[in-house]
Amino acid sequence: GEWVSDKEVEFRYEVYERSHEIKHELFGEYSRNNQIYRKIFDNKIGEILQDEMVAENHALMMYKPLIGL
Known about the structure:
Elements: E1 11-24, E2 30-42, E3 48-60
Antiparallel strand pairs: 1-2, 2-3
């Protein structure tokens, strides 16, 4: 997405994932696990001010991800 403003924007954000993993669990289902991080940049100097984890996901999948492989 894109945000538009008529005012100068101080910060820029980048959201990304780490440690993505799909596992076949012992009980026969699949689970998906990952961490969501956010980098905060100073727009004036272009440097990273912060790199922080904002969420961690651990979920059972409702479908089999490897069908057809």
